[in-house]
């Protein structure tokens, strides 16, 4: 008799893993990279900005103190060109914003890639159980919030790099009442209160300040418009995916609808921001006066 044919366990096709379709390794790599970039965002820009400068990296208090002293020096000089002290502070602040914008942009790219993996894996995570589905949903929300933070950081630092002098103005204690700085701030307010075109000639430092303040707001208006257009495109793509997904695939449809709504609302907010900044840029003198009066 012929012995019954037996099949070695190795000849059986392997059972599919319950984690099939979940890109565990790429998710881990991107998560680690994102965490490292978040840490770098708060540590690296100051060190990069200080590269080649004698003063080294400055914390917020040191930078504010250096700018206030440079502001008094610049105003008293009465020239449009920046004084040496002001030039050093502005150069540092420009490099700081550029470094932070670059790191935040890389972080945003990583988060977009990470979010794409989470979105792709989310429908499959539901097959692993409610716990996994909840975990991936929470991860998706966290990645989205981090991406929004990175986007705002990129926008704000591009704006600061375009107009670093105007960006530094927020470090002035506009309510100061004592000392030389208070006297200078009082002179600035006095000149800003005078109607434009009167006999009270605008000092060259103030003229540059008004122009840089306008450029600061023009930069945000342009940035907001560009990002709003991108978000509108994302919203349209999300709703197209929603429409093209079978009604039985409820997870994918909900996810697409959620992204569509979020992108549309974010675009609407940015449109409002762009309009407000455009209005300020068109007539920057009153807005600058309001800032020095403590209303900005």
Structure description:
It is built from nine helices and no strands. The protein is mostly helical and 296 residues long. It starts with 23 loop residues before the first helix and ends with a helix. Residues 8-20 have low confidence and may be disordered.
SSE layout:
Elements: H1 24-49, H2 60-77, H3 84-125, H4 130-162, H5 164-168, H6 179-193, H7 204-244, H8 250-282, H9 284-292
Helix pairs in contact: 1-3, 2-3, 3-4, 4-7, 6-9, 7-8
Main sheet record = none
* Helix content class: over 70%
Strand content: under 5%
Distance N to C terminus? 98 Å
Low-pLDDT stretches: 8-20
Q: What radius of gyration results from the CA coordinates?
A: 27 Å
Number of strands: 0
Q: What structural class is derived from the secondary structure elements?
A: mainly alpha
What's the short version?
The chain is mainly alpha-helical.
Question: What attributes does this structure have?
Answer:
mainly alpha; 9 helices; single chain; 75% helix; 296 residues; elongated
């Amino acid at each position: 008799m012929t012995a019954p044919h037996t099949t070695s366990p190795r000849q059986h096709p392997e059972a599919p893993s319950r984690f099939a379709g979940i890109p565990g390794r790429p998710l881990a790599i991107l998560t680690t990279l994102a965490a490292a970039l978040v840490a770098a965002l708060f540590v690296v820009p100051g060190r990069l900005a200080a590269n080649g400068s004698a003063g080294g990296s400055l914390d917020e208090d040191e930078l504010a103190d250096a700018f206030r002293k440079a502001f008094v020096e610049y105003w008293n000089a009465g020239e449009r060109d920046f004084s040496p002290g002001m030039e050093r502070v502005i150069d540092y602040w420009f490099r700081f914003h550029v470094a932070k914008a670059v790191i935040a942009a890389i972080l945003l790219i990583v988060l977009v890639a990470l979010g794409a993996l989470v979105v792709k894996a989310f429908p499959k995570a539901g097959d692993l159980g409610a716990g996994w589905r909840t975990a991936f949903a929470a991860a998706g929300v966290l990645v989205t919030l981090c991406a929004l933070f990175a986007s705002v950081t990129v926008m704000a630092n591009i704006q600061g790099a375009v107009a670093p002098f105007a960006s530094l103005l927020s470090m002035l204690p506009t309510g100061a009442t004592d000392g030389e700085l208070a006297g200078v701030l009082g002179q600035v307010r006095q000149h800003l209160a005078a109607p434009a075109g009167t006999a009270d000639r605008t000092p060259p430092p103030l003229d540059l300040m008004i122009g840089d303040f306008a450029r600061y707001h023009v930069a945000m208006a342009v940035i907001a418009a560009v990002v709003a257009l991108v978000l509108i495109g994302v919203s349209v793509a999300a709703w197209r995916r929603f429409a093209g997904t079978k009604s039985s695939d409820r997870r994918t449809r909900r996810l697409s609808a959620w992204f569509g709504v979020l992108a549309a609302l974010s675009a609407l907010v940015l449109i409002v921001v762009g309009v407000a900044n455009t209005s300020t840029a068109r007539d920057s003198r009153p807005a600058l006066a309001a800032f020095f009066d403590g209303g900005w």
